[in-house]
Amino acid sequence: MNIIEVENVTKRFGRYKALDDLSLSIAQGRIFGLLGPNGAGKTTLIRLLTCINTPDSGSVRFCGHPLTAADVSNIGYLPEERGLYKKMKVSEQAIYMARLRGMSRRDAIDSLQHWFHKLGIESWWNRRVEDLSKGMQQKVQFIVTVAHHPDFLIFDEPFSGFDPINAEQLKSEIMELKEHGATIILSTHNMASVEEICDDIALVNKGKVIINGAVNEVRRTFRQNRFHITFDGQADISDLPEWMQILSCNNDEQTTTVQLQVTDMHKANDLLQYFIARYPILSFGEMLPSMNDIFIRTIQAQNENH
Amino acid sequence: MNKILVIISREFLTRIRKKSFIITTLLMPVIMVVLILLPVYLSNHTDKSCTIYVLDDNSYFIHKFHNTSKIKFEYPSGELEGLKQRCVNGECDAVLHILSGSQSNRANLFFYKDPPLSLKNGISEQMDEVMFDRALQQEFNVDVQRYKVIKENAHSDIQTLQIDRDGRAQEKMVEMNRFVGIICGVLIYFFVFTYANQVMRSVIEEKSNRIIEVIVSSVKPFQFMMGKIVGVALTGLTQFVAQITLIVLMIFVVGSVAPQVFSDNSTAELLSQNGGGFAGATVATNSDVFTNISTFYSFPFSTLIFCFLFYFIIGYLMYASLFAGVGSATDNETDSQQLVLPISIPLIASLIVIASGISPQHELIRWLSFIPFTSPIAMLYRIPSGVPLWELLLSGGILLLTFLLCVKFAAKIYRVGLLLYGKKVTWRELIRWMKM
Questions:
Q1: pLDDT band at residue B147, thresholds of 50, 70 and 90?
Q2: What is the CATH number of the domain that holds A131?
Q3: Do B209 and A100 touch (CB under 8 A)?
Q4: Which residue, A252, B167, B375, B376, could crosslink B315 as a Cys pair with Cβ 3.0–4.6 Å?
Q5: Minimal Cα distance from B208: which residue of A?
Q6: Are residues A134 and A278 in the same domain?
Q7: Who among B7, B218, B419 is closest to A72 (CB)?
Q8: Contact B213 A51 (CB under 8 A)
Q9: By CA distance, what is B435's nearest residue in A?
Q10: Which residues does chain A have within 8 Å of residue B421's beta carbon, measured at their own beta carbons?
């Protein structure tokens, strides 16, 4: 089932078209990476999904029905531009935000205490926001986003401002939310984390979706017939047939690792057949392009065409 | 609805718990009371009784001065130099030397330590009186005692009465009407500016804090704006009521613990009874306004109170929503000032007009009382002198309608402006947003 279905949505700001007839669906229980260069329309799309803005045309459906303001109590949103009231106590602030999302005071306190305990920050409960470091405030903001048990979560650049340890903690929390059945949109420029935790992605540019699908499929679609192969000992691989081309070659004491570009006419088996007779093979594999490569290649290609 | 209450309570509670709020709430009444009581106290107490040695070369003024609570005259014998020396030694506060011959209207007042400011006038008045009495007697052959009785009895008493169309007359005090009107206007002016500005500052703060996006993803911007405006208004009213209560309380306490502060001054007594805080302060200086109590009670109180509340509340809501709209369109307070100016000019202008003491029946005031941005001040200035019902309804209706329109437009600007950063917005753009 799709938790979000965006159909032919257009949104203009004056003469500027932020979203251009954009369609997109997000399956329940998945982590969905929303990618795209700056100004592509990601934030505009997210603001439509959180009812901050309404589309000029097209529709947004949530759990099968048209999205309304009442649904925001079931959505958790961590904006990229996020802040807290500096002068308030951490707990008061978190309770306030949870109540604005429709929780009762009692439920809010229970849920928040659970989360503060889970992230090991109970001691911050009575501190003032201005006394916390930026990373600490980020943690509080994360809790504020998830405290009301939403089924649908949107994280816009959640890892910015976190040190590696806290980023890892956040990642595992996000995975855990997914295991509990939440659907998550992750908008980020951190492509490594997309490969690591996203199931599906959409690449948006100039208000349109240009790539959409499961991460593995997308990477396979962009495969370039590149392979890596490792031989035992020092291998002399100077005299190769012309259908393969060396991208790089690494020798160390015991092994030789080669990265090869193979022409479209030949398959992995051809490559293996050629080497298996000549060198002792230790490992072999296809090199799928990273999300980072796909991102750069696609966006650059599109920008050159215009 | 529930969310609006959550917003109102946060806006209210965080504000009244601020140190600055508590300090101003407590400090303002103290300053006010000191400002009210100090002049009263000073005029009664700091001018201690002065002893004046009189030396008259013509001996005409000798024993003609009468002692008052502040000045005590003594007529020691001796030369000027000797008296001056005694002044330096501290036996007296000043030496009054009245010059001889044709210059007998002239005198020198010698002092060693600075005398009270009122001393010279006090002496001069008495000298004038003595000379006047002498002239009456010597040049016009008038009996001074009889003259005084005549002068005492020749005292006019003018009542001001306002007539209506049916010819009925009602006692009205013109000064009182103006005074009440101006007080109401000033109160509205200060409340609107202080707290509408707070709304604006808070909107700007939320924007630059980047907290606003999380909030508007949870509640509608309109709900949030109204919650904030009402929350700030409650804060303002709390402060207002607390300050007035404190002022009244302090005046009572000072009056009962240290009645000598007021001594036998009837002005101060009146003040402690009517103790209307800010109002009382000015009333005390115009005590004759209150002398005719019956006029005071024939005053259109119910109309005034009802209208005050109406114009006060609607006027505040209108301006506060406009200020909120302006705040949402800017990132910082400096930029906001140029947008605030055009909307605050009507309010400032109307205050200046009524402060000039213009007649409440003047055509200008009548027109201003219909224009929604000036009517909260202008209409209240008119009400004490009587306003036809239809004019009241028309003005109120226009204000209410404008208020609703303003809230609608401000909410639109607010929606668009909140999430727009780093752009300096002009009025033209704001108007475009309204149409979006």
A1: confident
A2: 3.40.50.300
A3: no
A4: B376
A5: A83
A6: no
A7: B218
A8: no
A9: A14
A10: 81
- pLDDT tens for residues B312-348? 889 999 999 989 888 888 877 777 888 888 888 988 8
Examine residue A269 and state whether it is found in any structural domain, yes or no. yes
Residues A162 and A62 in one domain: yes
- Which residues of chain A are within 8 Å of residue B433 when distances are taken between CB atoms? none
Side chain identity at residue A175, one-letter code: M
Question: B209: nearest CA in chain A?
Answer: A83
| Chain B positions with Cβ closer than 8 Å to A | 3, 6-7, 10, 14, 18, 209-211, 213-220, 419, 421, 432
A67 within 8 A of A49, measured Cβ to Cβ: yes
Domains and CATH numbers, chain B: 7-42+171-435 (no CATH), 48-149 (3.40.190.10)
- Paired with B162 in beta bridges are B170
Residues of B in contact with A84 (CB under 8 A): 209, 211
Residue A51 lies in a domain: yes
Task: Give, for all 306 residues of chain A, the pLDDT tens digit.
Answer: 889 999 999 998 877 888 999 999 999 999 999 999 988 889 899 989 988 888 889 999 999 899 988 888 899 999 988 888 888 899 999 999 999 988 999 999 999 999 999 998 999 999 999 898 888 888 999 999 999 999 999 999 998 888 899 999 999 999 999 999 999 999 988 888 888 899 999 999 988 998 899 988 888 888 888 999 998 887 777 778 888 888 888 888 888 888 888 888 888 888 888 888 888 889 999 888 888 888 998 888 888 877
Picking from A78, A84, A101, the nearest residue to B218 by CB comes out as: A101
What range defines the domain where residue A242 resides?
224-287
B237, B12 contact by CB (below 8 A) = no
Closest chain A residue to B227, measured at CA: A100
Indicate yes or no: CB of B211 within 8 angstroms of CB of A77. Answer: no
ipTM of the complex: 0.81
Three-state SS sequence of A39-105 = CCCHHHHHHHHCCCCCCCEEEEEECCEECCHHHHHHEEEECCCCCCCCCCEHHHHHHHHHHHCCCCH
What is the CATH classification number for the domain harbouring A236?
3.30.70
Q: What is the pTM of this model?
A: 0.76
Chain B: closest CA distance from residue A152 (Å): 13
Question: What per-residue confidence (pLDDT) applies to B432?
Answer: 72
Nearest alpha-carbon partner for B214 in A68, A124, A98, A194: A98
How many domains are contained in chain A? Answer: 2
